[in-house]
Write a structure and sequence with these properties.
Layout lengths: L1 H17 L5 E8 L4 E9 H8 L11 H6 L1 H11 L1 E4 L2 E2 L1 E5 L3 E5 L2 E11 L5 E4 L1 H6 L4 E7 L5 E7 L4 E3 L4 H18 L1 H13 L12 H27 L7 H18 L9 H24 L5 H29 L3 H27 L2
Parallel strand pairs: 1-9
Antiparallel strand pairs: 1-2, 2-7, 3-4, 3-8, 5-7, 6-7, 8-11, 9-10
Helix pairs in contact: 1-12, 6-11, 7-9, 7-10, 7-11, 7-12, 8-10, 8-11, 9-10, 9-12
Length: 362
């Protein structure tokens, strides 16, 4: 029991330390004829500062003058890590404009604005330089053809390259894989799902026990409720019908983890499962959709959105299929259930409280 407790504390301390540390970028390309391509690429200022140490005077405040002074270095770094090409070879930056500040949900970004001259043929973009710098980095790309047709894509992990000629199946696979990765690397979403599944081990009365089959059945109800709820708000937010600032949503997600974990102290925690999953799943759906909404501005491909959602569900079901038997085995004894479940839940609640404070502080 003592080893189990130590393992749980270390696990959630690790999760708390690394939640939401990876950066992202927003890439917009617009074809302007046979050879000209207009680009507006937004990069997180924190990533640029980490690579180039933009704060020259070391006072902890990054000024516009320091950004302008570092403009050549910034442009060189961006062009080295994000490479645009066509079938005939690499595109060249014909002109660049004064950078601008772009606001995204998680803070200020620097907008790199350029016009590229490209050889004939379909375009391709290689973003692997940023993935090598930060393996968790994700880029959201929107490409507009000369006749106004828009295509969205996600770049991240092993899928760091995009081609304008990629098949419909490859396009949807990108969103499917990203949905899976988003859940697996979304430590707050995993923690929320974990405490809901942990609640299933609670016995209404000391003399009662749950079979594995019973726990799996109740886990299905929890996962289904979470799916229905976040699918609803995911669709509304990603298509632009609902728009909320990122910070309140992230704070609410952290609060949902803390509340669900504290409720596990009660012996009636299992009865709250699917209800909590649905109620707070609405909030988590807004978190899933935040980046997609920024990418598409309400114009997202609905099939791509569906593929993203299927990816989330695939990862969620796979995790539940492994976690529920493990939870049942660990807490099948009366003492381990009576002491272990509340202890593990309070550990998660403490980590979630840290998330709440850090997100409120920005």
């Amino acid at each position: 029991m003592r080893k189990l407790s130590v393992a749980i504390v270390l696990l959630f301390a690790y999760v708390g330390a690394f939640a939401h540390t990876s950066g992202s970028s927003f890439l917009a390309l617009r074809s302007e004829g046979e050879s000209a391509v207009h680009a507006e690429w937004d990069f997180d200022l924190r990533d640029l500062h980490q690579s180039l140490q933009l704060d020259e005077d070391g006072d902890g405040a990054l000024t516009w003058a320091e950004i302008i002074a570092a403009r050549p270095a910034i442009e060189s770094l961006i062009l080295a890590r994000t490479q645009l090409s066509a079938v005939g070879g690499a595109c060249t930056a014909k002109s660049t404009q004064l950078p601008a500040i772009a606001e995204h949900g998680d803070g200020p970004y620097l907008r790199f604005i350029a016009t590229f001259s490209c050889p004939a043929g379909p375009l391709a973009l290689d973003h692997s330089g940023w993935i090598a710098f930060d393996p968790g980095h994700r880029a959201l790309l929107e490409f507009q053809t000369a006749d106004g047709v828009r295509t969205q894509a996600i770049l991240g992990g092993s899928v760091a390259r995009w081609q304008a000629t990629e098949s419909r199946a490859a396009h949807l696979t990108r969103f499917l894989v990203e949905g899976m990765r988003h859940l697996i690397t979304g430590y707050d979403h995993l923690a929320f799902l974990g405490v809901l599944l942990l609640a299933l081990a609670r016995r209404p009365r000391s003399g009662e026990s749950s079979s594995l089959a019973s726990m799996l059945k109740r886990a299905l109800a929890v996962v289904t409720a979470f799916t229905l709820a976040h699918s609803l708000t995911l669709g509304l937010a990603a298509t632009g019908y609902v728009r909320l600032p990122s910070q309140p949503v992230e704070v609410a997600i952290a609060l949902s983890v803390m509340i669900a974990a504290l409720l596990n102290i009660s012996r009636g925690a299992a009865a709250h499962g699917w209800k909590l999953a649905f109620a707070f799943g609405l909030v988590h759906g807004l978190g899933f959709a935040g980046a997609l909404a920024e990418l598409a501005s309400g114009r997202i491909d609905l099939l791509a959105l569906a593929a993203f959602n299927v990816g989330i569900e695939t990862a969620q079901v796979a995790i539940a299929a492994v976690a529920v038997p493990l939870i049942w085995w660990l807490f099948r004894g009366l003492r381990s259930e009576r002491v272990g479940v509340p202890f593990a839940s309070v550990s998660v609640a403490c980590v979630a409280a840290v998330w709440v404070v850090s997100r409120l502080a920005g």
